[in-house]
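Homework help thread (please don't just give me the answer)

Our assignment gives two proteins as sequence + structure token strings and asks us to describe the second one. The first is just a warm-up. Here they are:
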Amino acid sequence: MHLPANDRRRKRRDKVVHARFSRSEIEQIEHAAEAAGMTVSGFLRSLSLEGAGVRPFFSDADRAVLFLLLSDIKAVGVNLNQLARARNRGETGQLLEEKRTIDGVQRVVAIVLFELQAFAERGSRRHAGSV
């Protein structure tokens, strides 16, 4: 996408910020920027704007998905606690319930991993195109 001349001028970045980092800090930053497919300048700009809330990492839709996932994780946690208490009391014969709970844990973990991967990929694409 090619911006008109007046839009390019408006987006021109003519302010410079100086910051000091230790050798190990700058190496970590350079590595992270490279892994994200960004320049160090773009990487730091992106993190600064997100940290300031100017361009938050998670959208409202993202936060809604995370809230639902958190609810699922809490429900699975309650089930695991109930099964652990039953085991500690010496109760047996709950193999089917244990299997269902473990299946639930695996399902929630898979969904969380899928969503986090989607957030990471979307974030990289967004930053590469807008920073």
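The one we have to describe:
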Amino acid sequence: MQVCRVASRAFRPKFSCVNIASRYLATSVPKPPSAFSQRLEAGPSFDDFVADNVDPEESGPTKVTLGNTSQPRLPSHLKTKIPAGPSYASIKKDLRGLGLHTVCEEARCPNIGDCWGGGKKAATATIMLMGDTCTRGCRFCSVKTSRTPPPLDPHEPENTAEAISRWGLGYIVLTSVDRDDLVDGGAAHFASTISKIKQKAPSILVEALTGDFQGDLSCVELVAKSGLDVYAHNVETVEALTPFVRDRRAKFHQSLAVLAHANFRPQFECFCR
């Protein structure tokens, strides 16, 4: 009897025909629509949303306002336009092509569109000579610093003069990073650039905004005699704050000596500020 039960259990089918048929009939019979389906059928169709004859009073608000509308907007005199114009595009293209740097871009000046976008003889720019890496680290400045910056580009004076002569500017400012790694602090490089600019564009006014050359007044004299129109040097702050704000190699009285040497020498034939 035990053997027969095992055999019959082994050959028993798992699914009977009756079960399969009942399941098929159960799934093939449609269910009555639910209350939710009935509401969808009675609601608006897709055509109602794209129809042209929609009553404005029934359509609801058509404008969406994002953000905090209670916060006052900036006044118009504090807003700047996106830089554009033929003069701006020409200056930027030449700077990229000749590998030159400007304070306008390095400092992300918001007035760059006004300076570069001016008309002929009205546009101006501030060229930063001797690379974009400074040997000093003043606390207020965001220019890159390094004890061993890249060497000077010997073609920079000629490239700078060539670019400026193309632009037709009325006034150009030349400044630079501090290069304490050089014997003359870059004074000869500065003077060479000014001389080449005056050769290619004699009518342009040139301002040289130099460093202190570590107090070497012979370097100041070299730049002042190069043919520039304005000699400038930044004191940056008052004497009491100088040790806390400027690099330790930048001294207040050292800066005053630079300005005094450039200002009280009539043979330099330049304005000092």
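TA reply:
I won't write it for you, but here's a hint about the kind of observation we're looking for: The beta strands are 101-102, 124-129, 133-134, 144-145, 171-176, 205-210, 230-233, 271-272.
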